[in-house]
Amino acid sequence: MSALLVCYGLVVVAFLYLPIVSVGFASVSKARYLSFPIRSYTLQWYESALTSATVSELVTTSLTIAVLVTVISMVLGFFGALAFARYQWRYRPLFQKLVLLPIFFPQAVLGLALLVWFSSLGIVPTWKTAIVAHLVWIAPIATLVVAIQAYSFDPMLEEAARDMGASTWQVLRELTIPLLTPGVMSAGLFAFLLSWGNFPLSLFTTGADSTLPKWLYAKMVSGYSPQVPALGMLAIASSAAIVVMAVLIPSLLRAFRARRASKT
């Protein structure tokens, strides 16, 4: 039975990652189009992608959107999670339903709806409107991620702090924020990755501006270049590096604090 489960796991992993492996082969093939066996390997597509002014502009735009969406989502997710999971108030059930609603909309439908809304308001779509579009879909996800941490929050801790004379601001600063920080950081990681690679919302709401996923799609539809798989692999590598850093940095900080505490 265990061997069968191992085989099943390997099949699932292969199904998920074989397309990425094929993209990796395409990115190092000297031929314009991928064919097996690869007769000649080269890294010129990575070099041209890294030195391209167009690619640099696309990465800057996508990174700006992702960073702003991440920061705003972390703030909205923190306070939204408090209202979602921590405090009892009159309209809490309605708030919970409204927060969950955008997640269930297909992103293409949501992007089209936002484009119509922007047009009705006379707003010209740019990368700034894409930030709003990303937030409509990503901020609720960040709220749910932080809410998972908030549900495990013991309210007796806040009550004990107030009984000892702590003000609301002191309770928030010294107790609530530190306890919810792991959830907020996880929400920020999700927000960045979801925004960085988002195509449907960016397609409808960036207007004349372009993000990296939008440019890659345009190149796949017309004017294919071997830069496409090279940029795809670079984007995957950067996302993987961010995930690894997010996992390792907290562990390293805990180890450093434990070592410093043991010395003192």
Indicate the radius of gyration in whole angstroms.
23 Å
Query: What's the structural domain tally?
Result: 2
Uncertain residue ranges:
none
Bin the helical content. over 70%
Secondary structure tally: strands: 0
Shape: globular
Whole-number average pLDDT?
Answer: 82
Largest sheet data: none
Distance between the termini: 51 Å
CATH class of the largest domain: Mainly Alpha
Label the structural class: mainly alpha
CATH topology of the largest domain: MetI-like fold
Strand fraction equals: under 5%
N-to-C series of helices and strands: HHHHHHHHHHH
CATH superfamily of the largest domain: MetI-like
CATH architecture of the largest domain: Orthogonal Bundle
**What is the count of DSSP helices, taking H or I runs of 4+ residues?**
11
Description:
With 264 residues, the protein is an all-alpha fold. It has two domains: 1-42; 52-263, Orthogonal Bundle (MetI-like fold). The chain contains eleven helices and no strands. It is globular. The protein starts with a helix and ends with a helix.
